[in-house]
Design a protein that fits this description.
four-stranded antiparallel beta sheet; alpha/beta; 20 helices; six-stranded mixed beta sheet; 12 strands; disordered C terminus
Length: 582
């Protein structure tokens, strides 16, 4: 974990090195001041030497100025290093997430990833700043003050040493006890973020079903869980201050008592006693700072582990050593393909699938809910890898292609139609970044989207809200289809992507496909028989197995499932699941 985090320091190594240097310089300057004060008292005030007071006083001013300068520079470079580390951690996580396969994405939920990139990174950068600044300062001050104290009076300095050891043991116990609570608290942040995210993104559904009170209670519960964990942690940490104050006052009393007797016995000067009392405060304040650093570190350990998990997560999919950058055509072949989402699953999701699709064909795919229709087409663009067998596109195993090349030639309109905040043109150009407005309009005409876009006041410059909340479901689907068409792919997959449009518009979209992109292989997943019956051939899936593959007429004669669904939809108006259940 530590290696992963420190690897992201990168260009901020110089700032990370200079910060401790300046902090050490500040400490040295501060440690010199008590010695100068002792000299003023013993050699200036006690002897009535005004000139000595002025000279040493001048050096104290110079020392204080240098201390201030070192402190400012240390603070500047600490901020630069810690904020830079935070920036690099967020960047490293975000970039690695972009390389995740669907299997990797399934492992981390969205709320957890958001927490790791915000709360967890903030904890790490705060801890890093405290380590570079407070920890270095505290350790330097502790060691330097201890050495100078022993130089002045080993007998009195031994009081510090005993106090430091006892206090160190107590602080270690406090930190260890608090660490468990902090780690549990940060795991609860995922639940809180998930509650907020779901509520905000689905606020219309919440209001429609009058579930506001339920969502409030859910949020309150998640928030209360974090409160209880942090409250328990703070109940442990609060012992830090009284222990520290008790130790400080005991040391001051003991040093004053023994020091006074030593001054009376002429074995210690008054100035030296003043210096020892100053060092006493420095030592114990250094311990206080160290305890704060350790508490912050204990809080950030869990955050560091969670961040490292994301950065070190390797995609389950990778480019081959010598990838193929040429997809000859849109032909597709499934050769004894079996697939499981998890290696521990007993039964495969897809079992021994054999298919051969010619380039340019229009293929319909139907099946009941859970029959693995989406899984089947996800294997074509290699969003998942098969467990057994092979999938071929253009006569080549998809695992031999460069991933970006393959996915640019296999355009998928997924079940969940996602639009991003920006204009309609911005969203369309996700399909082709340099697409002209004319190309966008032509794609929208094929997807039957141009007509409703033209009705908007700003037409193609109409602003789309995040998630496309200001357009209807059918409009969103047609925009997503247009976006996919802009890629001019060799294979076009529509995963139940016309379910929200009326049958007349659905028919017009399919007609446009036949006329405008005859050379593109088209796979259409649908629940409506009317959406696939004109396809060249139709795949019937049942519980992950190939139940039938042929033309509409052939399946009506030979496939019981297809015939039952056709009759239920044309005669009784039912959907596929109803027909399949008969």
């Amino acid at each position: 974990m530590l290696k992963t985090l420190l690897a992201q320091v990168k260009e901020y190594k110089k700032a990370s090195i200079l910060t401790p240097v300046f902090m050490f310089g500040e400490v040295i300057m501060e440690m010199i001041i008590p010695l100068l004060m002792a000299s003023i008292i013993d050699d200036g005030v006690n002897k009535g030497d005004t000139r000595h007071i002025y000279i040493i006083g001048g050096w104290m001013v110079v020392t204080a100025v240098f201390s201030l300068m070192f402190g400012l520079l240390g603070g500047k470079y600490a901020a630069m290093a810690s904020m830079g580390l935070g920036k690099n951690l967020r960047k490293a996580m975000f970039e690695n997430i972009q390389n995740f396969s669907f299997a990797n994405i399934d492992k981390f939920n969205t709320a957890s990833l958001v927490t790791r990139m915000t709360t967890d990174v903030t904890n790490i950068q705060n801890a890093y700043m405290m380590i570079l600044r407070m920890c270095v300062r505290a350790l330097s001050s502790l060691v330097t003050a201890m050495l100078l104290s022993f130089f002045i009076s080993p007998k009195l300095a031994s009081i510090y040493l005993i106090a430091v050891v006892l206090l160190g043991i107590c602080l270690a116990f406090i930190v260890k006890k608090a660490m468990g609570y902090f780690q549990a608290a940060f795991r609860k942040y995922d639940d809180l973020n998930e509650s907020v995210q779901e509520n905000v993104s689905a606020i219309r559904v919440v209001k429609a079903y009058v579930r506001g009170d339920y969502e409030k209670n859910r949020f309150k519960k998640a928030s209360r869980n974090i409160y209880h964990m942090l409250f328990r942690a703070e109940n442990v940490v609060i012992w830090n201050a009284p222990l520290m104050q008790f130790t400080v006052y005991c040391c001051i009393l003991l040093i004053s008592w023994f020091g006074a007797h030593m001054i009376v016995g002429s074995s210690l000067n008054t100035g030296d006693l003043m210096a020892l009392l100053t060092y006493c405060m420095n030592i114990l304040m250094s311990l206080m700072m160290l305890s704060m650093v350790f508490v912050m570190i204990s809080m950030s350990v869990a955050s560091g582990n969670r961040i490292s998990e994301v950065i070190n997560e390797e995609s389950t999919l990778a480019n081959p050593a010598d990838p193929d950058y040429d997809v000859p055509d849109g032909s597709i072949q499934f050769d004894h393909v079996s697939f499981r989402y998890s290696s521990t699953s007993e039964a495969p999701v897809l079992d021994d699938i054999n298919l051969s699709i010619r380039s340019g064909e229009t293929i319909g795919i139907i099946g009941g809910t859970g029959s693995s229709k989406s899984t089947l087409v996800n294997l074509i663009s290699r969003l998942y890898d098969v467990d057994e067998g092979a999938v071929y596109v253009g006569g080549k195993d998809v695992r031999t292609y460069d991933l970006d090349t393959l996915r640019n030639e296999v355009s998928v309109v997924l079940q969940q139609n996602v639009l991003f905040s920006g204009t309609i043109l911005d969203n369309l150009r996700w399909g082709k970044a340099d697409a002209t407005e004319e190309e966008c309009i032509n794609a929208c005409k094929m997807a039957c989207a141009d007509e409703f876009i033209q009705s908007f006041p700003d037409k193609y410059n109409t602003y789309i809200e995040q998630g496309g909340t200001n357009v209807s479901g059918g409009q969103k689907q047609r925009l997503c289809i247009a976006r996919a068409l802009l890629k001019n792919p060799k294979i076009l997959i529509l995963d139940d992507s016309t379910s929200a449009v009326d049958t007349a518009t659905d028919a017009r979209i399919r007609k446009a496909f036949r006329e405008a992109i005859p050379g593109t292989t088209k796979l259409i997943i649908a629940q409506r028989i009317s959406s696939v019956m004109e396809a060249d051939r139709i795949i019937v899936l049942d519980d992950g197995r190939l139940n039938g593959f042929g033309t509409h007429e052939e399946l009506l004669k030979n496939n019981t499932i297809y015939r039952d669904v056709y009759e239920s939809q044309t005669q009784g108006g039912g959907d596929f699941d109803e027909g399949g259940a008969d």
